[in-house]
Amino acid sequence: MPNYIKSAAPKPHARPLSTSVPAIVKGVIDDIRSNGDAAVRQYSEKFDKWSPVSFKLSEEEIKDIISRVPEQTIKDIKEVQENVRKFAIAQRKSISDIEIEIQPGVHLGHKNLPISSVGAYIPGGRYPLLASAHMTILTAKTAGVSYVVGCTPPILGEIPSSTVAAMYLAGADEIFILGGVQAVAAMAIGTETMRKVDFIAGPGNAFVAEAKKQMFGDIGIDLFAGPTEVLIVADEAADPFTIATDLLSQAEHGPDTPAVLITTSEDIGRKTIEIVDTLLTRLPTAELAGESWRTFGEVAIVGDLTEAYALADEYSSEHVQILTKRPREALEKMRNYGALFLGEKTCVSFGDKVIGTNHVLPTRKAARYTGGLWVGKFLKTVTYQEVTSQEASGRLGKLCGRAARAENFEGHARSGDLRDHLATGSEYEWIK
Questions:
Q1: Which of the residues 229, 318, 344, 359 is marked catalytic?
Q2: What positions does the entry give for substrate binding (predicted)?
Q3: Which domains does the chain have, with CATH numbers?
């Protein structure tokens, strides 16, 4: 059993707002469904104090915005996007169409077809998360999606120019400065000026997540996302300063980020706690990171790495960082995680910002049953079948007749009987 030398605080009572989020979101969606652009504008004014002549950026506006982005930022965006593109292309090449002949004259196959249209939500809020443009828009385009619209909110009444640059360079076909529930609903439903999409990807706050949840079914979505999570597995050789730094790097995402250390060394665990407390006196984002650490931070001491990996699998965390002598051992020992980060030279921030793997990942233990966003999420695997042999058609017809009547599906049975009749000339009472 693990020994917790720091435990998460008792779960706070739900804030009054949390119980009203679904109702608020439903009201916005219903209004936009009925009133289109007029409702979108109303909620943009209400929630973001944003009501431009057009939410959609023209080509001229995009070029003007990008011209004001520092040259180094543009170079960095292009370099990061090239990393993302290379990995996404390799993933796409790993997905193959197939066709087999399961018996003479019976051909079965599947094809991987890109979704026709995708909406990408690029969050704003506290930070301009321009990296989300790479992960959603660029990945969809690499999958072969023909139309991708990107939506991102204004930040303090201003257009986030670096985010717009990232969206444009990622290949967005249209860019809207529009955020929140109104953006998700407009993309999912379609309005006079916003084309309806088939799928929406991208992280967001509780309202955005709820909007995606409520629209699921009308459109596809990538994941039901929650707050960012980080978990570090460390042995006695790990550096507590590195552990503390990396825990806080994720805790600054917001006030509700679980930041967990599982270690085989009590000394490492206690030193990490001390260093975290020291770093929080200097970190510019300490207000957010500190709240996450105080409320959701945990440090568990275990007997050995086998126990550490088993406990980490129970957490099923979004980001799992392995700081041990043999980090690749986790590839064999662990099953439940959004993404693994192996060794001291690798950090979760690389995955968030630059390395090329996708940072839209499962949270709230969803890693038990799904991975994160990738090229495959933007593809539909569809099957087809063809029977080219009359003999095979007759044989399957007889089998179908028997199988369908065992389930009392007479119509199905007769469809099979007909193929038997066409192949063999056999007679049935229902055939006239």
A1: 318
A2: 228, 250, 253, 319, 352, 407, 412
A3: 16-100+116-222 (3.40.50.1980), 227-372 (3.40.50.1980)
